[in-house]
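ingest -> validate -> predict -> emit
validate: passed (alphabet ok, no gaps, 258 aa)
predict: started
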Amino acid sequence: MGALASVLYGGLAYLLFLGTFLYAVLFVGNLAGPKTIDSGEPGSVVTALVINSLLLGLFAIQHSVMARPAFKRWWTSFLPQAVERTTYVLLASLVLLLLYWQWRPIPELVWSVTNPAAGLALQVVFWAGWCVVLISTFLINHFELFGLRQVYARLRGATLPPAQFKTPLFYKGVRHPIYLGFLLAFWATPAMTVGHLLFAVATTGYILIGIYPEERDLVALFGDQYRRYREQVSMLIPLPGRTVRRTPPMPAGELERW
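emit:
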């Protein structure tokens, strides 16, 4: 019964994540939806800056602290290992839903692209970014990344194999294609408002700062394999001559970070 409950819990958490992820596209892109990054009645700019910064900070703290190996070791001392990832995904989704709900618009324009060709190009980059994010999760292990593989293994009474180091497709050109996809999606907009700029700057800062402890964890996990990979492949921007020269035999390193 415990294993079956874990599967149901994992499935519900995954569905919530999926809805949250899809809504993120609508939210950031100012597309159809009850609330987007620039919709709503604007109020005090100072109040909006404070509330939005607190919401972004809450997401950063939850996302970073709960992803650290030391925290995982602590809370799996009383939480079943099989639902550790599912619980992380659930809490991350709830924090994002809170952000969508409480986000305050700051509609003053920073830039506005009126050229149709340039506007179209930015829209293409926006959608390409989200595609890179989604595809990258499947290139490693989408269902393990979001906790479904773990709860299914518990139901079967199986043990998951150790994390394997691999560099499929996008991972041959950059070490963090998921983060690259988010950056493209967050910055590519024909109309950048102050509120959107705050969101883009804060998430970019979180990504750039958070990469370093994450890579430290990956070095601890994969050792010289990851050190060689880091020497060969750039962090976020594909650079000529900096790609994997050979596929290492053994990660889905991003799987350990997300």
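Residues 2-241+252-257 form one domain.
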